[in-house]
Amino acid sequence: MSINKDYRRLSAYTDQLMRELSPDLFPKAIQKIQVQCFANDNRLCLNKSAHYDALVLVDVQKEFCDITDRRGNTDTENTCKRIASLVPQFRAAGLPVYSVYFSSDEIPLDEVDFHHYQYADTDIPIRKTRDSAFQGDGDPFEDILNENGHKRLLVMGFNATACVYRTVKDAQSLGFECTIISDCISNDGKTYNDMTETLQNFARYKGVKFVPSGFALDAISTSGAPTQKQRTSKKKRFVPRSI
To answer: What pTM does this model have?
Structure first.
């Protein structure tokens, strides 16, 4: 009984700190508290693995994020800017990046409406024509990932309960392990903390995990992950066709 009381007291205390402390003033403290809050929430499964194979960006595009567009709002705009600031850090940590974008027609990459996020030559472009990156014409995304030996995926992007949801759902059913970066998804003005239960229930039953971006970066940085150059020097990078 005493242990249960202490646990409830700790949980309430961390929730209080999350409300009172400013992330700008206490970034490391907030990060640790976020991890504890995720661990305390029995609806979720915090991924403490230090090993991820690749980062998958879903539809970080003006059509879905721009505040001046009919689908965009303050939350999608801010989330998009956060993604744009974090992706270079994941690249620097040696994580390959799949830039998944929606386009009904085949267009040059320099015409894709990537929003705030800057596409890099080292990224692997994936064009999709449906909600899920795993459904479409051409080379299946599944084959591309398997060819590159990428099974453990970090996922971020838009929209959380549509394209991100369906992409992750298909990935899990095909045997990939997905971890969603919780502070880098948004949907219809809702961030992760106030989002519908779609993703939360999906995590509970399908084994999808969640992790804050800072925790994922720390895990990658301390795991001694090989650089992009080291990865590609061992095996020629597979250049996919659009799907």
So the answer is: 0.72
